[in-house]
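ESCALATION

Customer reports they have been waiting on this structure for their group meeting. Please prioritize. Original submission:
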Amino acid sequence: MLVPLLIVFLWWALPLAANTAKAPASPAELVGDAKTALNQGDMDAARELFSSVPAPAEGERGGTYLYARMQLARMAWADTDLDAAEAYVRDVLAVFPENIEAKTLLRSIEEARLPAWKKLLQDARRFMPSLLHGTLMTLLLVFVTMLVSPVGGLFIALGRISRFKPLSTLCWLDIWIFRGTPLLLQLFFIYYGLPAIGITLDPLTAALLGLCLNYSAYLAEIIRAGIQSIDDGQTEAAKALGMTYRQTMRRVIIPQTYKRIIPPFANEFIALIKDTALVSTIAMVELMRAADQMFNAYFNVSVLFFAALIYLAITTVFTVTFEWVERRVGVYERR
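Update from on-call: job pushed to the front of the queue and completed.
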């Protein structure tokens, strides 16, 4: 009778003793269970399992501990619990003082604790040198286009109002093409399309050519309208004084025309400052491309804010300058 009872007791007790004596889970098993909990969306269980991973003993590699603590630090960072994130990172640095990932995260935590104005100043020191370098290229594009396009626009406008039909038609076609197609398409055609016929230009030359041709066409129409706004009686008076057509244009009509077209010229040149951003599409590193590159590298919206401030500062300077020129030359004729 006792033997069967003893057998039953052993059959029940031995598995229980085996389970009781089962070795605790290894760090690798804890991390594996934590990953499973993360995949299932059980964040609390994952945190508990990661926290259970013990620090490595002397001589151990401790990669599992490093992974677990960095996961906890990232989870705390995502929850904006900066104190907990810093504590986990310092646990890592206590064991692995040269770990780059932990140092980088600790630096990010310290930056997140800075006041907003200090963070802005820090971002300015980081981003402004590259933005100002891009600004120099933007200003180069603007100034060269401002010098070339009024001259080109004047010749196109004079050809447009010429009585020589082939010349007038050619100038009309130029205006029709460059005002009727997007500037971006023109830049693409010059930089990417011309090599197909054996003409290869560097990005700066292609950008200047596209901007100058486009703005010459727009300014030509402004100049033509200005010339035709001058009273015909002045042309008749110049003829009566014995002036030729060229002398009449140079001494009478054009000087008055430029006084009247300064306001629309100002609008076009202010638009030009912003249109220079389009040349970034043909590998030109100007202000907008520099800002875009740094934003993609740092994902910091401050760089876009600084770029906007620079654009605003440039357009403000141009606006104030043109207003001063208008007052100086008497753009609105006082009668």
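Sent to customer with the following note: The longest helix spans residues 116-160.
Escalation resolved.
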